[in-house]
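Batch manifest line 307
LIGAND: adenosine-5'-triphosphate
JOB: complex structure
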Amino acid sequence: MSAPVSVTVRAAAKINLHLGVGAVRDDGFHPLATVYQAIGLYEDVTATRADTWSIHTIADAGIDPDGVPDDETNIAIRAGRALAEHHGLTGHAAHLEVHKGIPVAGGLAGGSADAAAALVALDRLWGLETSDDDLLAIAADLGSDVPFALLGGTAIGTGRGELVEPLENNADLWWLVVPSDIGLSTPQVYRKYDDLAPADAAGDAHPAELVAALASGDAGAVIGALRNDLTAPAYALRHDLAARVGELTGLLGSGIRVLLSGSGPTQLVPYADLERARLAAARLTEAGIAHWLAPAPVAGVHVVHYD
Ligand code: ATP
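JOB STATUS: finished
ARTIFACT:
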């Protein structure tokens, strides 16, 4: 096959089924024990041969791409440069076209998905055959959530979240994804976390109950074991999100769980049953609350088109 002119790669949004935060380290990072899951909202990144770096973002309906940089600070271009540098390539560049299906600054790691997709698209475009271990190492340098975007599925993350291992998961879930019009900054949520309470020294302990529930395939037990330590600081910063828990419970019934996605502001309601998830989605539509219904787990980065 001749060398491709362009390659399109898809990467999924992530949520955290468990986000346990430990005591802050000397370097300012909080050690995490997190369980990631890839859900069915996607970014498509198309890399095309070019002499200089450029990027253009278009977004699905309901997603505002205004906060996304269109210059070399965009994490997808930083990923491309890091890949070229890893191989000692100078003068390699590309045009990146990003099609966003993940809300910006929503706690769903849309930027990390772009970085992971760009790494794989450019690896294929340039015929580099980078090993998985090297891709994961480059990804970890770009950001804590980027290695998981490569992997997808359900995985445990330790360190800053960048050390990922796939988990056995026999429980399929449907997630109602409720975005917020206003983004929330991850560093600001961690600062509030530190203000509110001294970090729980055992916060980053292994989430044994959730890991066992995932392996058993008992979706109800998975839902019962969900935990996010950033909920209190995020809700302290954003009273509207705390209020929306009440609103969602009023609409969907007191039996639901409302999980904050990562550092927020997106909120998530899990269902083990598709019919019930569809009924709930219809109720949100009637109430005029924007949402998506996403299956999980879904695959990590994968090529969808070669030209
Ligand atoms: P995280 O939880 O990792 O902060 P997030 O889902 O909350 O992720 P992102 O959508 O990844 O947030 O973006 C966070 C910020 O990163 C944006 O506000 C934007 O300024 C910057 N950014 C850089 N590159 C991108 C990109 N390709 N897509 C989105 N945002 C980007």
